[in-house]
Known about the structure:
Layout: E1 6-13, H1 20-28, E2 46-52, E3 56-62, H2 72-84, E4 90-95, H3 103-112, E5 119-123, H4 131-142, E6 149-152, H5 161-170, H6 189-204, E7 214-222, E8 228-237, H7 240-247, H8 252-269, E9 272-281, H9 289-294
Parallel strand pairs: 1-3, 1-4, 4-5, 5-6, 8-9
Antiparallel strand pairs: 2-3, 7-8
Amino acid sequence: MGKELKSGFVTLVGRPNVGKSTLMNHFVGQKVAITSKKPQTTRNRIRAVYTDREKGQIVFLDTPGIHKARNKLGEYMVNAAERAFHEVDAILWLVEPTSYIGAGERHILEELGKVNVPVILVINKTDTVKKEEILKYIDVYRKEYEFAEIVPLSALRGENTDIMIDLIFKYLPYGPMFYDEDMVTDQPERQLVAEIIREKSLHALNEEVPHGIAVTVESMKTRKGGRITDIEATIICERSSHKGIIIGKGGAMLKKIGSNARFEIEKMLGRQVNLNLWVKVKKDWRDSDFLIKNFGYREDE
């Protein structure tokens, strides 16, 4: 008999832009969550799966950052995040390295007060501060909550991340694996393609536009012989003026988004991609229940 395996669900929580997706991508060794410096990058609970044949399996649920909701999409995201607290074996709470606990963190502390699973505090971005400062930050947080563990690390540089995995396993129940060992995420390819296009749009566009964009993949067909995949996708924005910005002068911006996205999609699918991008205006889609569902955001996920 081999060693008994442990398997369980772990959720990553934290304010927007604290490095949750970067950490998750680092754990599983490939990109399963898009990253950007802009808020509202992660909208769905992306699951990433980390498998170790000797130890077992960790299924990561990445929640949208918890924040005060301003519209229907915001409400949906916060509900999804808070529900995830109660369905897991452990919680990883990521914070910035600072001794000031702001309103956003206070709100998360309140939510954590209602759960009875172990909470591991992760102080991320330690590469941006002096080593001796970190002890001070640990102390500030330790006074606020009974954490199972406190780990300072840098997700970007991969510093201290290896001990994280061992620590998480410590808190998981014994049991068989939930997924095949070669599975890294349960997101369908179409959704990953849409997310990559959205990420490339966020990177290329200026501040005003990105919040108000969604991406739908209308069709994705692989040609006979399996060497080329044709993808038709639409970038949805909220205003006609945004449409002009996304297309750019002589179509330059849309070309740039398209070629950046195509490069990454080809890497993911392992084959040549022919990508056609369109831009459509749907006013105030973020306040329409129907359109939010239409763009793949489901309450029950």
